[in-house]
Amino acid sequence: MKKSILICPRCGSDRIEVVLPHIGSTYECRECGYRGPMIMGDRELAEKLKTRKREQEGEEQPI
Ligand SMILES: [Zn+2]
């Protein structure tokens, strides 16, 4: 059985922290600082997102 984890939709990290629990479930990614709803998934999905982010970054040309 695969373990469900919270994944950052922006960078694919699973280093997620709950912030401001009194206003609801707000999560923050400790990796990229993204704040908002997270994706429920597994390690496989996390790796996919990480790969996608790397590819996107590779396409961007630094000025
Ligand atoms: Zn992130």
A few lines on this structure:
By secondary structure, the chain is an alpha+beta fold.
Helix content: 25-40%
Strand elements, count: 5
What portion of the residues fall into strands of 2 or more residues?
A: 25-35%
Q: What small molecules does the structure contain?
A: zinc ion
Distance between the amino and carboxyl termini? 46 Å
SSE string, helices as H and strands as E? EEEEEH
Task: Give the integer mean of the pLDDT values.
Answer: 87
How many H/I helices? 1
Low-confidence stretches: none
Structural class: alpha+beta
Please state the overall shape, judged from the principal axes of the Cα atoms.
flat
- Strand order, main sheet: write it out: 2-3-4
- How can the largest sheet be summarized? 3 strands, antiparallel
* Count of separate structural domains: 1
Radius of gyration over all CA atoms, rounded: 13 Å
